[in-house]
Amino acid sequence: MALALLAEHVRPLDKAHDRQSFDCGHPGLNRYLREQARQDAEKRVAAPFAFTQPGSPAVLGFYTLSAAIIPVQELPPDLMKRLPRYGQLPVTLLGRLAVDRSVGGQGVGEFLLVDALRRSLEAAQQIAAMAVIVDAKDERAERFYRHFDFQPFQRTPLRLFLPMAQVAQLFA
Ligand SMILES: CC(C)(COP(=O)(O)OP(=O)(O)OC[C@H]1O[C@@H](n2cnc3c(N)ncnc32)[C@H](O)[C@@H]1OP(=O)(O)O)[C@@H](O)C(=O)NCCC(=O)NCCS
Q1: CB of residue 38 inside a 6 A radius of ligand 1
Q2: Which ranges of the chain have pLDDT less than 70?
Q3: What is the architecture, at CATH level 2, of domain 7-170?
Q4: Taking the model in full, what pTM does it have?
């Protein structure tokens, strides 16, 4: 059956979600969803959002968002030149993003990434963030983000960013 990829099927992770069967093929991320994500939400260190289908509580994908700061020197020189010299800059961290293997390759990863970017842009209209940054777990994940125009930081290539101005263009 075709998946319904609608924003209303992504909501903050809560007790009603079934996290036990989730398997993205990455044990650390599976464990994070099962054991840590709700605690992070309660302690307000990350906001986890879960994707489900109507009639089933099973989590089929999730992502987390947090506020973060980056040293300005991490940015590529051409971008750095156009920014005020504040030393540190506010960003939104897309800490984790994963899709259950049962629905892999069907556009859920892209759908969740776009949902996370839309949410980050909306939040940045109230509390500024000049980019969305991600920490790719490995080179495969890095390729996923580069596929969507994220650029690597100078010193930490598995950490990537997408300027919020570019995110805004996506939704203009
Ligand atoms: C990476 C992941 C989120 C992709 O999810 P998915 O639902 O299978 O991906 P989609 O079907 O939405 O793919 C969307 C596009 O990205 C591309 N893509 C998917 N994975 C990719 C990868 N590793 N490298 C490059 N491109 C990739 C697809 O080819 C597709 O491109 P197209 O639209 O041009 O055809 C998923 O495989 C996953 O959860 N992996 C384990 C956890 C992980 O690595 N998370 C990311 C870092 S924390």
Answers
A1: no
A2: none
A3: 3-Layer(aba) Sandwich (3.40)
A4: 0.96
